[in-house]
């Protein structure tokens, strides 16, 4: 058995019902490519989420060809504010004093 499956098994067997989850994950190779299942298990372990549902989610993403979400990007300088608004908390006090909404 590949090392990734052994690591997953070690994590799953610590929880109630983990043996059943492991059997269901192993049975995925009957319906899907073994390398795809192995890769899904490896990615789930990298994510730190050793569960059957996460392995299935990753496997389906691999099969569908959808890329994982892109990492956050830094905003370029062009998107920065040219003139930042001035903080005026007194404005909120004047809004609260008006009784037109109550």
From TrEMBL:
Segments of this protein annotated with the region Disordered: 66-93
Biased composition (Basic and acidic residues): 81-93
Name of the molecule in the record: Transposase
Organism: Novosphingobium sediminicola
Organismal lineage: Bacteria, Pseudomonadati, Pseudomonadota, Alphaproteobacteria, Sphingomonadales
